[in-house]
Please model this.
Amino acid sequence: MEKKIPVVAIRELSETDKILSALKAHGILCAEITFRTACAEEALRLACRNYPEMDVGAGAVINKVQCRRALAAGAKFIVSPGFSEDVARLCQKKRIPYYPGCATPTEIMQALKWGITTVKFFPASVYGGLKALKALSAPFPQVKFIPTGGVNRENMEEYLAFEKTAAIGGSFLVEEALQCE
Ligand code: 3PG
Model:
């Protein structure tokens, strides 16, 4: 897994190439395209087709209808802000990695029940940041986290230095890549 996962919100389909190529030029070979804009599904399809070398997945997937659409569009992984059993079931069936949002021990236990050992810690900054992440890790040594939400250039390295951080996620990575264009 890439260590940095840009959270990409595509508002116009025509932005897709610009954003994906900027990420690639920036050395980021992955993108989480969030299902919260009208053209997200089409943008995901376009990105998966034009950037097969990149790990392109869908974010903000909150139900099985969206999950089905994302998988049909070619998503290589699925991310949710919370935990959805329906999405977990579908991803398990299709053998696609699913990273549910988990911010409490109960949610992590739910993920573990589905065999999921890498979860999104969201919204990281609101739920206590690195301190909370370390505390949550103690009873779950088998779990790795993707802190997302309020992660930025300043705190990114602290998160990444923690051994239980699988990757960090954030929209700031998209902004940075576009600034360098
Ligand atoms: C997400 O959907 O994962 C978050 O909105 C990303 O949060 P950020 O904009 O603080 O990186």
